[in-house]
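Here is an idea for our session: we take a single protein and study its fold together. Once you have written the record down, we can walk along the chain together.
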Amino acid sequence: TEALKLAPIRRWIEENYPDGNYARFTGVRRDESLARSDRQWREWDDYYDCDLYNPVYDWTKQMCFDYVRAHKEQVNPLYALGFTRVGCAPCINSGKDDILNWATRFPEMIDKVRAWEQHVGRTFFAPCVPGMTINWIDDVVAWAKTDRGGRQNNLFRIQIGRASRRERV
């Protein structure tokens, strides 16, 4: 996130608004996570050194979908396919369900990540597989097929993945 999103945005802001006359707006909601549960309408953003506005901070996910539909806009179709994070493909913060969903519905995305990892010699994911310090994409996909703890395959999860793949064809 730092290297691919935050730092490039900060560079762009510094180049285009050298006088510091800018503010940031986010779509962050309190109910997304414990870390975001204390968000306020207006805050100070230390990273970007500006006012930060969170206009939907107290909305639910359903309220966001309702707003989009009420304004005759299209909701990202990945949500209808069961994805919970749709900003990146795949998101480095994806949980097991989203990783398994990418691997079964769009294996070409997993192939792209694997090729990138091989090309640069670095992993795409931060350590998330228990007991491993480096998590290559294939390790993460294998982990996504397991129950809690990451040690035992869950046949139900694997079957769901196969059903998603057949549904796509």
Remarks:
- The mean pLDDT is 86.
